[in-house]
Amino acid sequence: MAEDQELMPPGATQGPVQAVSAMGFPSPARDYFDGGLDLNRLLVRDRVSTFIMRVSGHAMQSAGIFDGDEVIVDRSLSVRHGSVVIVNLNGQMLVRRWQIDGQQVGLLSDESPLPVILAEGDEVSVFGVITRCLHHVR
User: Fold this and answer.
1) Contact at 8 Å (CB) between 96 and 62?
2) What is the pLDDT of residues 64-101, one digit of tens each?
3) Could you give the C-alpha distances from 109 to 13, 32, 59, 74, 118, in angstroms and in order?
4) Is 39 in a helix, a strand, or coil?
5) Are 59 and 96 a contacting pair, CB within 8 Å?
6) From the centroid of its chain, how far is CA 63?
7) What DSSP designation does 42 have?
8) How are beta strands 112-117 and 104-109 bridged, if at all?
9) Do residues 75 and 51 make contact, with C-beta atoms less than 8 angstroms apart?
10) DSSP of 59-117, one letter per residue?
């Protein structure tokens, strides 16, 4: 072997050397990253029957629903005692807590300590059950 001949691995070529500089250290969170957040997967049970509605008013602050918040409403869920619902009562859309007491159904809000008891002549239709509230942080 000649003295001026360098030992190089097969397939290697001679060329300019480029310096690589690493600054800082890699993020520890990189090991746990499995893609972006899919809010549909995290927040929505049934995509076909789920809607987002903006709330106006202060009737349900004890439930954590404030004026201007968006709520996720699932129309496929059955209403149960204690469900927070979007209800159309005599042509007015309301956010209320559904309350069942024996044979009576009432709609409870923060505005009154007593529920509004649904009467036989009332036109009532439940639009859906609220599953989540998207609260604005101001």
Assistant:
1) no
2) 999 999 999 999 999 999 999 999 999 999 999 999 99
3) 78, 43, 5, 20, 14
4) helix
5) yes
6) 16
7) H
8) antiparallel
9) yes
10) TTGGGT--TT-EEEEETTSPP-TT-EEEEEETTEEEEEEEEEETTEEEEEETTEEEEEE
Paired tokens of 110: 């923060």
The 10s digit of each residue's pLDDT in 111-125 is 888 889 999 999 999
Polymer length in residues for the chain? 138
Strand order in the sheet with 50-54: 50-54, 70-74, 124-134, 84-89, 92-101, 104-109, 112-117
pTM of this structure: 0.71
Which run of H or of E encompasses 43? Answer: helix 39-43
Q: Which residues pair with 125 in a beta bridge?
A: 88
